Amino acid sequence: MGWRCWCVVLVVVLLLQPVIDSASASSIVKNLPGYDAHLPFNLETGYVGVGEDEAVQLFYLFVESERNPLFDPLLLWFVGGPGCSAFSAFFFENGPLRMDRNMSGNIPKLELNPYSWAHMLNMLYIDIPVGTGFSYSKTQQGYYSSDTLWVEHTYAFLQKWFIDHPKFNSNPFYVGGGSYSGTPIAPLVQKLYDGYVAGGVPRINIKGYVIASPGVDLYETLNSKVLYAYQMSLIPELLYQSIKEHCGGNYVNIDPEDTKCVSDYEAYSELVRYINPQQILEPFCETTPAVNHGILQSSLQHGSEFWCRSYDHILVNTWANDKSVRKALYIREGTKGEFLRCNKTLAYNMTLLSVAGYYQNLTKTNIQALVYCSDLDMSIPHIATQNWIKSLKLSIYDKWRAWFVDGQVAGFTEIYKMKEDHYLTYVSVKGAGHVAQKYKPKEVYHMIKRWFSYSLI
């Protein structure tokens, strides 16, 4: 009888094992091609299965804090798009490594990032939505995604990830990201907070959110660009006054029969046509497939007086498509063809055109908030962000003032009171583009360090 019982147990274990493996699988990465030494930080990569039958397999990178990983906050960081890989942030924003733009071999050289947020935070990056980066689906249907599924898949991911990483259950947990990810972050934080209050298992210790040049209200974002262009002297005052009068301040839903409004808007569009919306002072660069890849590759390898920040995209694509890199990252063979930093062919439905209401609800919770923008970003102008923050109708706790790094003005900040001892901190980063840490890594590093230390920025 005992022998039969053990057989039953053994059979059950064997049957369950593939299910467990498909739900979550992780590996420790000691070395990465392009970096000529053992990694001096703890890096883990892996997949977590979510959705129906766990068909969606989300790839992630986890970097332990170099200070005190068992006590330091854990920050989940999204990249926008939608469809841009976590490697965008890992190499060009706040990760532990960065790429040497002077590429001399088959793949880019890697070097330590002196402004890595992992100096004081545990950093978790996900390739999401499905089809982004190295994430994939076992079924064709699984590749269809949306804002709503982004939230649901991330929530399911986090539940499984924390079960697999119980030593981080009590760490203060934050959700952050830039650009379009400002849309799913709001409902996700609300869902996490509701789960925490309800005592869900695992009880994820959600404490706040950090958003950079966030996409919160599509209408507000698009509508603010004309005013931004005028304020930055990209269009003349006469045109601005005319377009404001004839379009009534509405530049999104323009009536095609309103010839004066249409004419003014066409004049505005022509004037900003060759302005780089990511950073208005940097070169406008065309990097569509129609552009000769060889010319860009040559400029990287041999140097060129003309440089574009978007050339970095070639670097990460070259690196991630190398077989040795995929092996080092434990990428599952046959799950991903060509890696693209941003996958612009996602089957994605933008279901949430405004999440300002979610951020309004979060002002009534025990949540801390950091919202920062760049003054040279026209893709999501700081004006749009300031407008939806104003709509929250919060009282000012610390009025508008400069903040400093190395004795120099790094930008401006204003702090708003939410619930009890919880605040929304707004920060502008001087001279930065979309998003700020790409352009001003040192300044944003100090801002983040101060905010997480509960110090004034």
UniProtKB/TrEMBL annotation:
Gene3D superfamilies: 3.40.50.12670, alpha/beta hydrolase
Signal sequence extent: 1-25
Pfam families documented for this protein: Peptidase_S10
Protein known as: Serine carboxypeptidase-like
Gene Ontology MF annotations: acyltransferase activity, transferring groups other than amino-acyl groups; serine-type carboxypeptidase activity
Coiled coil ranges: none
Keywords: Signal
Family: Belongs to the peptidase S10 family.
PANTHER family per UniProt: PEPTIDASE S10, SERINE CARBOXYPEPTIDASE, ALPHA_BETA HYDROLASE-RELATED, SERINE PROTEASE FAMILY S10 SERINE CARBOXYPEPTIDASE
SUPFAM superfamilies reported for this sequence: alpha/beta-Hydrolases
Gene Ontology BP term (one): proteolysis
Organism whose genome encodes this protein: Arachis hypogaea (Peanut)
